[in-house]
Specification:
The complex is a heterodimer.
Chain A: E1 8-18, E2 25-36, E3 41-45, H1 52-60, E4 67-72, E5 75-76, E6 87-90, H2 102-112, H3 117-130, H4 146-159, E7 164-168, H5 176-193, E8 196-201, H6 204-210, E9 213-218, E10 221-226, H7 228-233, H8 238-243, E11 248-256, E12 259-262, E13 265-268, E14 279-284, E15 289-292, E16 297-306, E17 310-317, E18 320-327, E19 340-345, E20 351-352
Parallel strand pairs in A: 3-8, 3-9, 6-7, 7-8
Antiparallel strand pairs in A: 1-2, 1-4, 4-5, 9-10, 11-12, 11-14, 12-13, 14-20, 15-19, 16-17, 16-19, 17-18
Chain B: H1 4-15, H2 18-47, E1 48-49, E2 52-53, H3 56-63, H4 65-98, H5 104-119, H6 124-133, H7 138-143, H8 154-179, H9 182-190, H10 195-224, H11 227-232, H12 239-248, H13 253-284, H14 300-327, E3 330-332, E4 336-339, H15 342-349, H16 353-384, H17 390-399, H18 405-416, H19 433-457, H20 461-469, H21 474-485, H22 487-502, H23 508-511, H24 519-529, H25 532-560
Helix pairs in contact in B: 2-13, 2-17, 2-18, 3-13, 4-8, 4-10, 5-8, 5-14, 6-14, 8-10, 9-10, 10-13, 12-13, 13-18, 14-25, 15-25, 16-17, 16-19, 16-22, 19-22, 20-21, 22-25, 24-25
Classes of the chains: A alpha+beta, B mainly alpha.
The complex binds adenosine-5'-triphosphate and magnesium ion (MG).
Adenosine-5'-triphosphate is lined by residues 17-18, 28, 46, 48-54, 202 of chain A.
Chain lengths: 353, 570
């Protein structure tokens, strides 16, 4: 449906802002290098203030980078104004034009492109049915629910067939249930339209659910670019590990190729490039360990609580605490506070940083 | 860290938008020529003589006893009017926000009071003051049998200006009081403080910056006021009238320029304090909406006296306005109370009233849309766009607010009578209707811009960005998104500017040539001659015009407006 899928490339992009309080300049985005494949769905993910919106607005053209060059479909676009860029943005606040009805909102971009009214009518009708709003052409924007307004915003961006679709936390004003169904919807529409999409969110489950790739940012710096699985199983920093899902860090020492020593016990663990003898942190997801009466790493149950899908534990190992979730607890032994347990790991679950 | 790349990219993006660049350039040129240049010329005039930089002109005017007197007179009036207006304004605001007096009658009174400064020509109150309390005044002569009461002078000016300006303070303070979180005061009440104590220890400190703000705004208005001191000042001259006499009576252009610089210096100083210190402070202490409804005061011992006080004042002001049309309908005010239409007749037969109304009306009608559009464009640029000259545009269009009309008038005489810098360029402008229109525009621009800015600040910036993002250029965005969204503000800017123009006098009286007859100038002339019947007849028709304009605007906004709520800027 899109004329042409376009990729986006950011080369050494930085943006400097002045802190209004101290009057000092700081990097809101620093030396960012990204390659976004045509037709893929990538998500900028990170805590509040890490520079996600700034990055997105630089791609859209609302902000100009202080260093580096942005390419869209291979063309450098730094000097282009937003209206000349082949991008379309879906805003957090939807930003519908309140004095127009739904039809005119969606048709706005097409009219600017001087299409004849027949074509416009057809395109608008088609796109409204794609987003599930057929028959609502004549409503005003304030006669729609939040979810419907969101769809109009999406339709309006899609209908001009941009090379890249940009989303800035488009679902944050919706309630939790609607958020889940809308994100599946957005993913479906993006796949159907085959359009490149850059999506900003600080909700990691949203990012995991819809993205081909996630870009995890922290304080203006890209920490990792990876598929959701890679980022979850092989985070390249404590920040990423902690930000994506829950995580325990176990202090350990590398003893050999893929072998570490935790609390005096030798355990198999992917060590990557770490040298033998190095201190490291072993990443342990709460669902990645099993509890049993025998094993290598010994601990004391500090907290135990039935959560339905899983039994939630806190185990004291040496001086530190480890969070463990045992799924499907019905068929497993339940440990009580004060019990002595041993942690066991399946192969390929541990990962050292 | 260098921000040079983004700056140069932003510049490139701006340059890619020729309409926007042209608009900015034209605006900068307009503001420079018609606001900055005339003021700069005044400085040149008063500091430069044939043999270089000198303070001679200042020494000369300072040596004039009437000028020194005028300075003290002006400041005295300004202080008194500033204080009295803010206090009365506070009283009205407090009663409206805090006291339960929800009768239709009182609501009506308050509404009328808040409308008055919008529709009233500047000297109406002076006229009625003379007719009520002067030698032939109804109250003094017929009720009190005082036959030689003089209203002219300090007290006359002070009373008239206070009554003219306090509604502005009332509207300003009302906004502030409404934003105070009632729980702050209730907490103090809970701890046992009396109502008076709560007012003194909680409410008053919270609005003190706002009160200071109101004081300074009125102070500036008072010392810049020309019409009232002219009519009711008698021999009590203020700076504005002294400057006027210096140029029209003594033909001393240099001296007038130096005097104008003095007046400008005072207003500018006050303006800077008001704008950059008090305004920020008065909103900072009171940001945010009230959390819930305020418990209104129902205690009779409070409501009754306050109600009586406010309605008394309001009724008095209203009587003063009503007095003007009546003044136009009696044969000889104070002596012969037979009804007559002879004054209205004379306006049109003997005194070219029709031409006066046509000239005033047409010139104001031309300047109104220009002002409205210009102020919306400025507001759009200031609020929504980033570019180098933005600070300049914002500052200069606000600066115009602090320039008294008389000062501007002298500046235009000095700046344009011989063309730009005496070169003859643009000389053709001088003495034409065009320069009158320009003066109207410049005089109304600040209020229009202020209302445009506050309207635009309430519109989420992403709405315009989304249009821009979908391919509209700046011009398209402004026409299809910005303007439709602030059409109320545009309309009120249009009407406000029309009303301000048709009632303007201070700058225009210095620039008007005999080929144009303006109503306000006529009123001033007849009032000075003591021909109050004619003056009142002119003024009555003027009030009818302005009132109709505001009424039409309200009706229009009610049916076509975006917010369906009328917001008139003073
Ligand atoms: N116009 C601006 N002037 C100065 N600083 C700014 C400006 N815009 C953003 N910043 C700062 O830049 C940093 C990054 O902001 P950005 O909006 O990109 O964050 P974000 O990742 O989108 O956060 P959130 O999840 O809260 O939306 C923040 O520290 C912010 O305060
Ligand atoms: Mg953001």
């Amino acid at each position: 449906m899109a004329k042409e899928k376009k990729g986006v490339r950011l080369e050494h992009i930085s943006k400097i802002y002045k802190d209004p309080k101290t009057g000092k300049d700081f990097y809101a985005v620093k030396d960012q290098n990204l390659e976004i494949e045509p037709g893929s769905f990538v998500t900028l993910l990170g805590p509040s203030g890490c520079g996600k919106t700034t990055t997105l607005r630089m791609i859209a053209g609302f902000e100009s980078p202080d260093e580096g060059e942005i390419y869209l479909g291979g063309e450098p676009i730094n000097a282009l104004t937003p209206n000349k860029r082949d991008t379309a943005m879906v805003f957090q606040s939807y930003a519908l034009l309140p004095h127009y009805n739904i039809f005119d909102n969606v048709a706005y971009g097409l009219k600017l492109r001087k299409m004849d009214s027949e074509t416009i009518k057809k395109k608008v009708t088609d796109i409204l049915s794609l987003v599930g709003l057929e028959g609502m052409e004549n409503r005003m924007t304030n006669q729609l629910s939040g979810g419907q307004q969101q769809r109009v915003a999406l339709a309006r961006a899609l209908v001009i067939e941009p090379g890249v679709l940009l989303f800035d936390e488009p679902l944050s004003n919706l309630d939790a249930k609607l958020r889940v169904s809308m994100r599946t919807e957005i993913r479906r529409i993006q796949q159907e339209a085959g359009i490149t999409a850059v999506y900003v969110t600080h909700d990691q489950s949203e990012a995991m659910a819809i993205s081909d790739k996630v870009i995890i940012m922290n304080k203006g710096i890209v920490e990792q670019v990876a598929t959701p699985q890679e980022a979850y199983y092989y985070p390249n920093s404590k920040f990423v590990a902690d930000f994506i899902g829950e995580c325990n860090f176990l202090k350990a020492k590398v003893t050999g190729q893929d072998m570490v020593e935790i609390d005096g016990a030798a355990v198999k663990c992917a060590t990557g490039n770490l040298e033998s003898g190095a201190e490291c942190d072993v990443v342990l997801r709460p669902e990645g360990a099993t509890l049993s009466d025998t094993g290598v790493i010994k601990g004391i149950v500090d907290y135990s609580c039935f959560m339905g899908a899983y039994q939630d534990y806190r185990i004291k190992v040496g001086e530190s605490f480890v969070k463990i979730q045992e799924y499907n607890p019905k068929n497993k032994k339940i440990y009580k506070v004060g019990d002595t347990v041993y942690l066991g790991f399946e192969d390929n679950t541990l990962y050292a940083l | 860290m260098a921000k040079s790349q983004s700056a140069s990219l932003d510049r490139k993006k701006l340059m890619a938008d020729p309409i926007m660049v042209t608009t900015i350039v034209l605006l900068v040129v307009f503001l420079t020529i018609f606001i900055l240049y005339p003021l700069a010329i005044l400085l040149v005039d008063s500091f430069v003589s044939d043999d270089g930089l000198t303070l001679d002109t200042f020494k000369r005017v300072m040596a004039l006893p009437n000028f020194r007197r005028a300075i003290t007179n002006t400041l005295k009036v300004g202080f008194l009017v500033g204080i009295a207006s803010s206090l009365i304004g506070l009283l009205f605001a407090y009663v409206e926000v805090y006291v339960k007096l929800r009768t239709k009658f009182m609501e009506g009174l308050f509404k009328v009071v808040s409308m008055l400064p919008v529709v009233s020509p500047p000297f109406v109150l002076s006229l009625s003051m003379i007719m009520l309390f002067g030698k032939a005044g109804i109250i003094t002569r017929f009720l009190l049998h005082i036959y030689d009461n003089s209203v002219y002078g300090f007290w006359g000016i002070a009373i008239v200006q206070t009554l003219t300006f306090f509604p502005v303070c009332y509207m300003m303070l009302k906004g502030l009081l409404k934003n105070i979180d009632p729980s702050l005061e209730e907490a103090a009440r809970d701890m046992g403080a009396s109502r008076f104590k709560v007012f003194m220890t909680v409410t008053l400190p919270l609005i003190l910056p706002g009160l200071g703000n109101a004081f300074l705004v009125t102070f500036i208005e008072s010392i810049a006021d020309f019409a009232n001191p002219m009519i009711i000042g008698g021999s009590y001259d203020t700076l504005a009238t002294t400057i006027y006499l210096q140029i029209t009576g003594a033909y001393d252009k240099q001296g007038a320029a130096a005097m104008a610089v003095v007046l400008l210096a005072i207003t500018l100083l006050m303006f800077v304090i008001q704008k950059y210190y008090l305004e920020a402070k008065s909103t900072a202490t009171l940001s945010g909406k009230a959390s819930r409804e305020r418990m209104l005061i129902t205690d009779k011992s409070v409501t009754v006296p306050l109600t009586i006080l406010c309605s008394g004042l309001a009724i008095f002001v209203i009587i003063m306005y009503i007095c003007v049309p009546f003044g136009a309908m009696f044969r000889t005010w104070g002596y012969d109370f037979h009804l007559t239409f002879k004054w209205f007749g004379q306006v049109f037969t003997k005194y070219k009233g029709f031409k006066a109304f046509k000239d005033s009306f047409i010139l104001s009608l031309i300047s109104a849309p220009i002002t409205a559009l210009l102020s919306m464009i400025i507001s759009y640029l200031v609020v929504k766009r980033k570019f180098k000259a933005k600070g300049f545009i914002e500052a200069v269009s606000m600066l115009a607010m602090a320039v008294p009309g008389t000062v501007l008038g002298i500046g235009y005489i000095r700046g344009f009578s011989g063309g730009l810098f005496g070169s003859g360029f643009l000389q053709g402008l001088y003495g034409t209707g065009a320069i009158l229109v320009i003066v109207f525009v410049v005089r109304s621009l600040p209020t229009g811009t202020r209302s445009g800015i506050s309207a635009l600040r309430q519109i989420d910036k992403s709405i315009e960005e989304s249009a821009y993002d979908m391919g509209a250029d700046s011009f398209k965005v402004f026409m299809t998104v910005t303007l439709p969204l602030i059409k109320d503000s545009f309309l009120s800017g249009f009407v406000t500017s029309f009303v301000r123009s048709i009632t303007a006098i201070s700058a225009i009286i210095l620039l008007v040539t005999p080929s144009y007859l303006l109503i306000t100038v006529q009123i001033n002339e007849f009032a000075e001659k003591g021909a109050y019947g004619i003056a009142c007849a002119f003024a009555t028709i003027l009030i009818i015009i302005t009132y109709t304009a505001v009424l039409l605007m309200n009706i229009f906004m009610k049916y076509f407006g975006t917010s369906r709520k009328v917001n008139i800027e003073d």
